[in-house]
Design brief:
Helices cover about 15% and strands about 45% of the residues. It has helices at about 205-210, 215-235, 240-245, and strands spanning about 10-15, 20-25, 30-35, 40-45, 50, 55-60, 65-70, 80-85, 90-100, 105, 110-115, 120-130, 135-140, 145, 155-160, 165-170, 180-185, 190-200. This is Ig-like domain-containing protein.
Length: about 240
Amino acid sequence: QFHPLSPTNVSSQLKANAYLPCRIKGLGNKSVSWIRNRDQHILTIDRYTFIADERFAAWHDPYTQTWTLHIKFVQDRDAGSYECQISTEPKMSHFVELSVIAPTVSISGESDIYVKSGSIVDIQCVIRDALEEPTYIFWFQGKRRVVGRDPRISLMVNRVPPDTSIGTFSISSAKLRDSGNYTCAPESLERASVMLHVLKDEEPAAMQDTASTSASPALLTTSLLYLTITCIAIYFTKRTPGDLT
């Protein structure tokens, strides 16, 4: 008979491992088969696999008398009902429903980040609906992986129960060369990207110099006309009546 505590519903994360247990009491010399219900394909009989897909296997724990169907790198199409069948007459069956959960990966905030040179930058990669915490989150600037050798850069991953992980990419003092496309790549999950723009912070003196060299042509013409009239007035003031005749 099937143990009353054998689960009937199992959830697994996309591209992770799924374990479907079937606990049996008093099995004796009977065989145990796992069958995929959507196409009635026999997956395993005892420890032998009867499907070309190498992701499927079965293993037995003699201590708990549990026959477990193991599915590697779970895909969306693996969701559905699976039958644990004992070779009695008539057959005895226990059904397990597999649900496949697909985590979402996103970058917090806008798709473009604008900061001034010297600013602190924090880019957060948020992974939601994750049944398992990713073993790693890689970061890339363009096609180059950032490994954190720059003392200005730090990488951190935090788990927020029950199903969220946050990877943070930090720059303590942004430089112009830090501009570019940044991508977070969690283990076995989709990727998310953001564009970082580091702007040059101009000094006030430089801005004043720029303003003084960019005077309008109309202003220069007016100043030149004023200077010419002033020079003519001074010239005639210094002339004698005889000179004027």
